[in-house]
Amino acid sequence: MTQSDAAVPSPESAPRDFIREVVRRDLAEGRVDSIVTRFPPEPNGYLHIGHAKSIVLNFGIAAEAGGRCHLRFDDTNPVKEEQEFIDAIEADVRWLGFDWGDHLYHASDYFERLYDWAEHLIGAGKAYVDDLSAEEIREYRGTLTEPGRPSPYRDRGVEENLDLFRRMRAGEFADGKRVLRAKIDMASGNINMRDPVLYRILHAAHPRTGDAWCIYPTYDYAHGQSDAIEGITHSLCTLEFEDHRPLYDWLIDNLPVPARPRQYEFSRLNITHTVLSKRRLTQLVAEGHVDGWDDPRMPTLSGLRRRGVPPAAIRDFVGRLGITKSEGRVEVALLEHCVRERLNREAQRRMAVLRPLKLVLENYPEGESEEMEAVNNPEDPAAGSRRVPFGREVYIERDDFMEDPPKKFFRLAPGREVRLRYAYLVTCTDVVKDADGHVVELRGTYDPATRGGNAPDGRKVKATLHWVSAAHAADARVRLYDHLFARPDPGADGDVLADLNPDSLVEVGDAKVEPGLEAWPVGETLQFERQGYFCPDPESRPGAPVFNRTMTLRDTWARLQAKGQTGGP
Ligand code: ATP
Ligand code: MG
User: Fold this and answer.
1) Domain edges within the chain
2) Which residue, among 511, 398, 514, has the nearest Cα to 465 in the 3D structure?
């Protein structure tokens, strides 16, 4: 099964929502005979998990109906768009498990046709060149409670408009000197209908068309017409475009377009402790608050990938949310729950000690070692087992020892016996300290009769610890990530940056990991027993692995659900 097959739900499990109802009805009533959707990113940043909602919806609906979904770059603003973003977007959509086949398009593919259609509008007296500045246009536009006023240039004749528009294209005017506007209704209750701008002058090179153009169409003008050219049947977008729909329809109605697409809107994805606006994410990158677009704390698809989140978990997550028109913020704990659910099933288990404390087993023969059988994934018998070396010196987690333990601490303490997973029961007999009184090493004994971690006499120990053999362990650096924003609603008090979580990254420099992990494949997330899920960072070098913590094992969503506090899916 390829990744993209995996992303297509079978008809029985296909989700239901109001957009799918429309699709079903349109097919049943013969309004359309096949379904064509598109995912239309603007290449001015990397894709984030909000985009994943749109991708899963658009590709999902098309696949369920046996139709197709296009990838179309909405590349109408060369000032902010870059080839780097185009490449990253393609890679991310593929990684998420979707395939547009031959249907890769760009709004810029249609610049010539869009231009001809603009002349068509001018010829029909439905568009005019305006000399007002951007600021004046805003002023004239009015407000929600006040109608707009007509521009003094609104009633220019067709010939003059055509001449000026052609000269705009020819590069005669500086940026911002003139625009082309649709002539609709300055008194409309919908501000989008008050003579919206269709073209602006921008003397900027475009990643695809180079210097061929110095006027560029606006989103509103380019989008619906691109949909029509491609034969898109259902143009799905987020709710902020609801008020643009009358304009979308007006342009389709007034242009000789080859098809009649329709726009439907659904609510955006918002997540607690997260920002999902490209403007904000761009700021985080540009100002160095994170280590690039793919920083594992970023909600970008490339960040989630680098963090070790499987694409299937993202599809599970957005699938569970459903498609509605209600706005809200989804608990990030639900995303994390979906990630854990997947990884619990799929991730191999290994042992790693993040903050090592050496335990020397004094009755274990010096210079010897043996191999212990360890289960790779208790949830997946097919994952098999492996052999882990054990010897006289092992590292255990510093946190798993207390010299003077309180009542509820059941792990290692002087005189106490615990189980080393897959190995032996061991007892701490002595504590070695440095001059400042810090514990630097433990001494102990093992019980040779408990090989594999089982006591033949059935005696119980209250704790099972993970460990690695000191003689065999590999060194690793480990990055422990937490939410990038400390509060659930970043920026609610006005300053998003003030809400950055100062502890969102803690780096551990001297972790000890099981042999075999020094060269674990990037992209393959595993569980460090009792610690969480981790994956190698692409910065890993042979013999110098760096692991990113994908997630701890603590499932706050399951806890909220048990308490009946999730209120959502
Ligand atoms: P942002 O608002 O984050 O800057 P955008 O909407 O400008 O994003 P586009 O590249 O234009 O980004 O988005 C491509 C598609 O993804 C659009 O159809 C848009 O509606 C959809 N999309 C963007 N953000 C979200 C989100 N948070 N939830 C669902 N869909 C989204
Ligand atoms: Mg947009």
Assistant:
1) 2-108+220-333, 112-218, 352-466
2) 398
